[in-house]
Design a protein that fits this description.
It is a single chain. By secondary structure, this protein is of the alpha+beta class. 20% of the residues lie in helices and 31% in strands. The protein is built from four helices and nine strands. The radius of gyration is 17 Å and the shape is globular. The chain starts with a helix and ends in an 18-residue tail after the last strand.
Length: 205
């Protein structure tokens, strides 16, 4: 019986439901940032982010953007896989704030996306101060909030204050002169569920 339980353990872990809140720690070269992801209200967005964590897809990526608000203190920082096609997974459907009840408040983490609503992959933003213009409203789908920072906002604020230059369009002048490296992303709750896909970025291709 004991041997049977050992054999079944991986299957039982894989079938276990995700905790309602999943903590993730981002280890950066500017210090650690700990997130609490809301798997209850934003399950698809949280599951997408955790795939990147569990696969190691954030290791060696960066925070590359600091968007400082022009008329008030705050703004947001953006990080993740950038445009690296070796790390990208299929896009996730948008879970708008009008459906989840989550908002772009201070410390919120939100999925970055392209122009199409259902285009978020492996880039994300962390709010410094409220950014209600990123919430969904009539005629604008907004962005998907899926958790918040519970430790390390001092690190986020240092990233936001770092020198910027370059960029174009909406990102003009917002690219970090020295991007902050994400050394690794560590899941603190629940069992890891890697995709099992190849990892070409580890081969130096």
């Amino acid at each position: 019986m004991h041997r049977l339980l050992l054999l079944l353990a991986p299957l039982l872990l894989a079938a276990a439901p995700e905790p309602r809140t999943v903590r993730v720690r981002l280890h950066t070269d500017a210090g650690p940032i700990t997130l609490a992801l809301d798997a209850r209200r934003a399950p698809k967005t949280t599951a997408n982010f955790l795939l990147y964590v569990d696969d190691g897809r954030f290791e060696g990526t960066t925070f590359f953007r600091a968007a400082r608000a022009r008329t008030r203190p705050g703004g947001f920082v953006e990080g993740g896989i950038g445009t690296d096609p070796r790390r990208v997974l299929p896009p996730v459907p948008l879970e708008p704030t009008s459906r989840t009840g989550l908002t772009h408040s201070d410390g919120a983490i939100s999925m970055a996306r392209w122009e199409r609503p259902d285009s978020a992959t492996g880039n994300f933003s962390i709010m410094v101060g409220p950014n209600p213009g990123m919430d969904a409203r009539p005629g604008r789908p907004g962005y998907a909030v899926f958790g918040r920072v519970i430790a390390g906002m001092d690190v986020v604020k240092r990233i936001l204050a770092a020198p910027t230059a370059g960029g174009s369009g909406a990102m003009k002048g917002q690219m970090l002169v020295r991007p902050v490296r994400i050394l690794r992303a560590e899941r603190l709750d629940g069992a890891a569920r890697p995709t099992g896909r190849p990892k070409p970025w580890t081969l130096g291709l």
